[in-house]
């Protein structure tokens, strides 16, 4: 009789393990469904954000004003079509170069960069001369804006 009870006990344990496995499978399936829902939502948000990005990129590239962006080291990271046309540079030859390189007066360019980058000084309608790729002096008025980064709690 003991052998018979042991067999029944083993059968019950196997059934319980099977039920646990089925429950685990159900939990995994629910987790996968939730993950897919979140993934689909992220893809939709990415597509919407990308549409806004492309729209703004089109505006910035096609605006008649020159737009030049630099990094924290004063290196050119972007020039829109108008800036490239005005200075005669191609993107591949100017991106990564110091902004001071396109100022006609290099010392003035370095001083302005120092004031913007180190002292966070803002300029509005400041007049300077740039030098085009062929050496032509180009009088311009420019303004600066500092991009403020969000602080993160890393």
Q: Top keywords for this entry?
A:
154 residues, alpha+beta, Beta-Lactamase, two-stranded antiparallel sheet, 4 helices, 55% helix, rod-shaped
How are the elements arranged and paired?
Blueprint: H1 2-62, E1 68-70, E2 76-79, H2 81-87, H3 91-94, H4 106-117, E3 126-131, E4 137-142
Antiparallel strand pairs: 1-2, 3-4
In short:
This protein is an alpha+beta fold and 154 residues long.
Outline the structure in words.
There is one protein chain. The chain is of the alpha+beta class and 154 residues long. It has two domains: 1-62; 64-142, PAS domain (Beta-Lactamase, 2-Layer Sandwich), CATH 3.30.450.20. The chain is 55% helix and 12% strand. It has helices at 2-62, 81-87, 91-94, 106-117; strands spanning 68-70, 76-79, 126-131, 137-142. It has a two-stranded antiparallel ribbon. Strands 3-4 form a two-stranded antiparallel ribbon.
Main β-sheet: number of strands, strand sense, barrel status?
Answer: 2 strands, antiparallel
Strand content: 5-15%
* Poorly predicted runs: none
* Structural category: alpha+beta
Distance between the termini: 65 Å
Q: In percent, how helical is the residue content?
A: 40-55%
């Amino acid at each position: 009789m003991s052998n018979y009870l042991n067999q029944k006990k083993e059968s019950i344990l196997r059934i319980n393990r099977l039920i646990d496995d089925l429950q685990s499978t159900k939990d995994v399936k629910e987790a996968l469904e939730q993950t897919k829902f979140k993934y689909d939502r992220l893809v939709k948000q990415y597509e919407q954000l990308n549409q806004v990005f492309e729209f703004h990129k089109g505006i910035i590239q096609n605006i008649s004003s020159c737009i030049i962006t630099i990094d924290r080291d004063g290196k050119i990271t972007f020039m829109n079509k108008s800036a490239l046309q005005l200075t005669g540079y191609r993107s591949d030859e100017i991106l990564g170069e110091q902004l001071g390189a396109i100022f006609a007066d290099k010392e003035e360019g370095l001083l302005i960069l120092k004031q913007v980058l180190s002292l966070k000084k803002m300029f509005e309608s400041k007049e300077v001369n740039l030098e085009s790729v062929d050496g032509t002096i180009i009088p311009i008025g420019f303004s600066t804006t500092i991009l403020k980064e969000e602080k993160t709690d890393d």
